[in-house]
Amino acid sequence: MSAVSQKFALAAVRCAFAARWLRQNVYLAAGTVIVLAFLIAAVFGEQIAPYGANKQNLLNSLEGPSAAHWLGTDPLGRDLLSRVVVGTRHTLSVAVVSVFFSCFLGVILGLISGFARGHLATAVDAIVDVALTIPNMILAISIAAVMGAGLTGLIIAISISFTPPISRIVRGRVLEIREEDFISAARTIGVRPWRILLRHVLPNAATVIVIEASLQAGQAVLTATALGFLGLGVQPPTPEWGTLLGYGREYLHSAPFMVIAPGLAISLMVLGFNLLGDGLRDLLDPRVGN
Amino acid sequence: MTSTTHRVQRMLVAGVAGVFLAATSSFAGPDDNTLVFGQSQSITDIGPAYNAFLQYPSGYEASFVIYDRLVTFDDQLRFNAQLAESWTIAEDQKSVTFKLRAGATFHDGTPIDAAAIKFNVERMMDPEINTTNRPLWDPIAGADAIDDLTVRLRTHEPFALLFNTLAHGSGAILSPTAIMENGQESETQNPVGSGPYKVESFNPGLELVLAPHEGYWAGKPPLDRVIFRYVPEAATRVSALQSGDVDVIDGVPTHLIAQIESDDGLQVLASPSLRPMGLAMQTTVPPLDNVDVRRALNHAIPVDAIAEKLFLGQAKASDSPLAFNTVGYHGNEPYSYDPGKAREMLAAAGLTDSDGNGIVEHDGTDLVFTLLVPEGVFANDVLVAETAAAALQEVGIGIEIRKIERSSFWDTLRLPVAEAGWQIGMFGFNPSNASGLYHLDSMYTSNPDNVGRPAVWNITRYSNPEVDALMAQATVTVDGDARAAILAEAQDMIWNDAPYIWLQVNNIISAARADLGGVEVWPVIFTIVRGGAY
Fold this sequence. Notes:
The complex is a heterodimer. Chain A is mainly alpha-helical. Chain A has helices spanning about 5-50, 80-115, 120-135, 135-145, 150-175, 180-190, 195-230, 240-250, 255-285. Chain A is flat. The two termini of chain A are about 25 Å apart. The model of chain A has no long low-confidence stretch (mean pLDDT about 90). The longest helix of chain B has 18 residues, at about 480-495. Chain B is globular.
């Protein structure tokens, strides 16, 4: 191979690396910025919002976007921007808390079904298999309908409906890891199964779990707002994106800005979590991009 | 978008059936002389007894097309003859003799005679069969067939509301032959009446298709088909009307009126309702047992602003327990919107905010009421509740809104006091027989058991012996003016005792194609398509 072509090849490889690095970081950076922005809105919602989220003014009802009300007002004259900003806390906390719980449960079930043998693993597998056959939206609707509208019901509904897929992903990773030489080595020298699971298997499965969790967060936002849209979200007058969207659909012709405000917020938050998840995968998962 | 989806679904269905239909217009409109009514509630049964048109008002609306009654209302709620041609009231006012229309037949071809009327009246007097509308029929003592076309109805006492009962949906006359052949409960799914259209097919909860009754006593009906179809979403109903999928719709929200009015091919049909909306207060629960507290809350709500801004003028602030157009209505001095006065009255009743958190204390703890509201049962129900909650919080009353699924709403309203879980609840009574007496009696006569389930609709557990006496007196007063005077006195008392936070009376708003005539909107919230024609 000539020196010139060697140079070209090197340059090409460098370019590919640079492109990959940029792509990883653009996704990661964009995702992080969006999620951070929502996090700030969730924590400081009341301080950031230009008006009180529940401050009514019947004289200003259904006004279109203006300098005073950037996203317009609802039929009770409440500022939609303020309601969307203050509503962030609800949706974000539902997403984060329910993904935390579903990961916690999913990891335990996944580790058991992937690592243990015998009746326990079979039983866990069977339960997860059955749960996977029920579409998670249907599962969430049924649970929320039984629990009634409210935060607790919503979190339980989403946590339970998201557990089976996470458990399945963790199981797959555990099945791979447990065939590795270092696991056999650990077994040979008599390390206890629980220790192997916690010290060797779990850390190696962590990447998959982190990536899956951030992708699931986006799904959780969609499920939470969908339940709100169907009237299973929160009690009025709490601003919640799905409820705002559901309420706005009656006004699609006369006041389309009623759905645009919460609709944009939902799309942006889902996009943020998905970019973050993709970025993390590119960065952490060695199998991607090779 | 929704109408497109609708269309695609229909085309699929038609394709499966092997019938290709290129355009949905062949389902509706004057081209094939069919009237499609897109209803906001579904129809699950269509008999006057048992569940009595369980879903409201859709079942009643269908029944007024399928059945005839002895007398009927017009759109001003005056009485008109229907199966009866004429009547005479006995001197002791305890019986009325009806002369029936000659030549009228049921959908099954059997004649409508005095025996058929007697059969139907006795059926509605049977508590096993008429489980829902008993208060309307209890005062009736019996019916006698005098000859083929003459029937006499007897009442225990002079009964002021006999005609209201006969014109009510439960006054429908069914074919005795069909009932005897198919069983008592056959009426709920397969009714045989004598109205201008008869049942061709019925898919409960989805669609009811009616075909003309060729032997109808007033001549062959003008339409080839009348179809009732359930379209739950208001915005979808309006789109369906605009695209020609349906010809008549009910339950038009006020903010969509402009959209319909801007379309030359459509007309808005509106009528003030007989249903005054209000927030029921549990008058046995402290501090709501104090009449001054209840009056104070009435001064806290900006009802005029709600009527003007939320309903865009399609509503009017109440000034009586009865709606403005109810027979016997008598206006009172409205409670002015005055938060300052409300605060003063609450303070005078011992409810003050001593810890400065914006909420008054009662017995040492913050006073917070649960406000029960359904979603999609009353016009703008949740929005009105949110406005009221904010206004009550303004005067120091804490409110937690409890929005409840519409299917469990009516039952939750009627729970015993201890189990209710709400102190303030949104409610509006619709006097479906158009009578102010029936309205006041159902809502304000003392319950026999004031902590259990209310006997009828006295969910506030309001109890005033003077009002009870006036109700009893009005029931046996046949003279209209004398009865109105008694009702006026009762309305004054109830208005001042304020068992409700009185809100607004809405207009009922329906819409139809502009070239469709004869559709009536009755103040009892029914949209009547019986006389529809292109």
